[in-house]
């Protein structure tokens, strides 16, 4: 109903009831005046003020009560969250428009990614409409894409004069890559394609890291049933492929094969950490020696810690 029609009906009702209920009508007119004044000036109603309070409290519970809740909800501590907000604002062009605060925008985005939350879950948690949740999720996503060059690390090869005992045997190495499974929710008709060998419904994500564990490249979206070699083939043939300078390479595990730009361990030879556990026999040939050194390096690249295979 149009605003003018509402006013006409109110005036008609007022004229009809004024003689018999003058005090009540005065209260009615004052209430009506306050309502339209608040609508015009943008002041919040009681319900709006309550919703704003709920939103502030929800955000405060996440980022205002220490690192524990923040890490659980957003997968990062409060300092990292503050730095990310600043980075998105300064370099990603993310802004506040007076409707949703910048920390709430980023927190909503991270909660959806970290916990695979549905739109309706965020509607309830922050008292927002579904359109609002979608709008600001995409707004933050676009800001993240703008700063991807700052978020992704650069890979530098191992130098010829490297003296690091972990990396000195792998001249020209850029880092390591591997795939990982992330559980997802898909329509019933597509579950067979996303089911892994262990029966879980997942997507196969390939990550490439430099020697300092910084992500250089990430490819997501492949079904859980896809083999690692198939995903790697897509990585090197797609238009935005992984770029590997000539003469350099990444370390890959036994699920991949050797090829230009990729170095895998010897197959059919001891390779896994448990096979090199303390007390196991020493390498008997150059293949076993290579695999023993290889697993130490690839675990450092993955986890940042030395494998106990001495």
TrEMBL record:
<dbReference type="GO" id="GO:0016787">
    <property type="term" value="F:hydrolase activity"/>
</dbReference>
<keyword id="KW-0539">Nucleus</keyword>
<keyword id="KW-0378">Hydrolase</keyword>
<protein>
    <submittedName>
        <fullName>Uncharacterized protein</fullName>
    </submittedName>
</protein>
<feature type="domain" description="DUF8040">
    <location>
        <begin position="61"/>
        <end position="145"/>
    </location>
</feature>
<keyword id="KW-0540">Nuclease</keyword>
<feature type="domain" description="DDE Tnp4">
    <location>
        <begin position="177"/>
        <end position="293"/>
    </location>
</feature>
<dbReference type="GO" id="GO:0004518">
    <property type="term" value="F:nuclease activity"/>
</dbReference>
<dbReference type="GO" id="GO:0046872">
    <property type="term" value="F:metal ion binding"/>
</dbReference>
<comment type="similarity">
    <text>Belongs to the HARBI1 family.</text>
</comment>
<dbReference type="InterPro" id="IPR027806">
    <property type="entry name" value="HARBI1_dom"/>
</dbReference>
<dbReference type="InterPro" id="IPR045249">
    <property type="entry name" value="HARBI1-like"/>
</dbReference>
<dbReference type="GO" id="GO:0005634">
    <property type="term" value="C:nucleus"/>
</dbReference>
<dbReference type="Pfam" id="PF26138">
    <property type="entry name" value="DUF8040"/>
</dbReference>
<keyword id="KW-0479">Metal-binding</keyword>
<dbReference type="Pfam" id="PF13359">
    <property type="entry name" value="DDE_Tnp_4"/>
</dbReference>
<dbReference type="InterPro" id="IPR058353">
    <property type="entry name" value="DUF8040"/>
</dbReference>
